[in-house]
Amino acid sequence: MTRHPLDQVERQPHTCIWEITRRCNLHCLHCGNTCGEPSARELTREKAREVARDLVRLGCREVDVTGGEPLLHPHWDGLCRDFAALGLRTALITNGTLLDDERLERALDAGVAAFGISLDGLQATHDGIRVRPGQVPSPWRQTVAAIERSLARVETIVITAISRRNLAELPALRDHLANMGVKRWQVQLVVPLGRALEAAEPLVIAPSDLELLTAFLVDARASGKTPTIDVTDTIGYFTERETRLRGSPERPALWIGCQAGIRAVAITYDGRVRGCSMLPPEFDAGDVHDESFATIWNDVERFAYSTHFDAANLAGPCSHCRVGPLCRAGCTTMAYWTTGSIYTNPFCLHRVRGGCA
Questions:
Q1: From edge to edge, which strands make up the β-sheet containing 15-19?
Q2: Is 196 exposed, middle or buried (0-12, 13-18, 19+ CB in 10 A)?
Q3: pLDDT by residue (tens digit) across 321-352?
Q4: Whole-angstrom Cα distance, residue 146 to residue 93?
Q5: Counting beta carbons within 10 angstroms of the beta carbon of residue 314, is it exposed (0 to 12), middle (13 to 18) or buried (19 or more)?
Q6: Cis peptide before 32 (omega within 30 of 0)
Q7: What SS3 class is residue 254?
Q8: What is the 3-state secondary structure (H, E, C) of 185-196?
Q9: Which of 167, 231, 247, 261 has the most CB atoms less than 10 A away?
């Protein structure tokens, strides 16, 4: 049997998603961590340095600092400085409402190489999703100002979580970003966890919406106009559009399975280690309060859902899909939160079209 491509690569945590706090100033409808108040188990700066040193020794190249809202952590810039000093490319993922001139200057001085700023639609849509308690300024206005401020100084990626509320608005949002001068736009699906499960109306798009969404993304990417679009793991897979969705005519790309626990890792706001930040506690590999990150990462059995993925366990339509053993049921997080299993996933365009029958 041919070995899967992910079984042939050197296992290293190249990218780390690091939630430094659970504290947040917004009440977003799709928040997976139901953020608000900080956790008493958030890491000290010294413990974070220790973990970061392990990450570097194990081959990590980039850390994406997030939360909660990371700018509410009392030592956010010190942590970024520590990461950058160790040689990690440090990106800061923020809702943008607190990114004023003073914090931007502090971030750049700390070595932050890029910002990811969340914008989930035009003003009414965004403010209806990223809710701020009380009668205070529009989060959208503050976030747009932060994007404009950041664009002038450092690489800035706008991040949009696609939901039923903003799906039809994506073309207008793309035009707005282009007019702002945004160069990169990252899109991902809202996953049904956390507050998204508590919403009064469904937030997660229907699998049938993938046809229209994918057509828009492929056409927008093919136009050659900015912003360029980065399509994340929740969207795809294995139709004639796949290589244009993830790559380009010059450099075709193909989905080859989830890399959580193989080339990517996450550290939660309370010190737990997972392959992906959105996986549930059942997938925790360990806690850096109790043992070193290196000990956790080097125990490959703790990430067996990725490192020992068994295609024989594929279920439902994925079990008789011709590309199932390569695809591995798409995004592990989306598969789990929609079905309770990592071995079947309704959010697959190939499956929506009946290609797995």
A1: 228-231, 184-189, 155-162, 114-118, 89-94, 62-66, 15-19, 264-267, 272-274, 286-287
A2: buried
A3: 999 999 999 999 999 999 999 999 999 999 99
A4: 12
A5: buried
A6: no
A7: coil
A8: EEEEECCCCHHH
A9: 261
Q: Residue 29 to residues 36, 52, 194: CA-CA distances in angstroms?
A: 12, 31, 9
Q: Which of 16, 33, 27 is nearest to 67 (CA)?
A: 33
- Round the average pLDDT of the chain to a whole number and report it: 96
Helix (H, G, I), strand (E, B) or coil at 152: coil
pLDDT tens string 46-62: 999 999 999 999 999 99
Residue 324's φ and ψ, nearest 5 degrees, are: -55, -45
Percent of the chain topping pLDDT 90: 93
Phi, psi angle pair for 100, to nearest 5°: -90, -175
> Measured between alpha carbons, how far is residue 106 from residues 8, 64, 77, 78, 79 in Å?
41, 17, 7, 9, 12
Contact assessment for residue 179 and residue 226, using Cβ atoms and an 8 Å cutoff: no
For residues 211-218, give the mean pLDDT: 97
Short-list 63, 145, 130, 135, CA closest to 99: 145
Please compute Rg for the chain using Cα positions. 20
pLDDT at 137: 87
- Give the pLDDT band (50/70/90) at residue 100: very high
CB atoms within 10 A of CB 94: 26
The residues near 351 (Cβ < 8 Å, ≥ 6 apart) are 207, 317, 318, 321, 345
Best CA proximity match to 213, nearest among 252, 174, 266: 174
pLDDT average, residue stretch 125-148: 92
Tell me the pTM. 0.97
Query: CA–CA separation, 226 vs 220, rounded Å?
Result: 9
Helix (H) or strand (E) holding 306: helix 304-307
Cis peptide before 227 (omega within 30 of 0): yes
Could you tell me the CA-to-CA distances from 285 to 28, 80, 212, 340 in Å, in that order?
28, 25, 37, 19
Q: How far is CA 259 from CA 15, 99, 174, 232, 263, in A?
A: 10, 31, 28, 12, 5
Residues 6 or more apart whose Cβ sits within 8 Å of residue 223: none
- Residues 27, 139: Cα–Cα separation, whole Å: 11
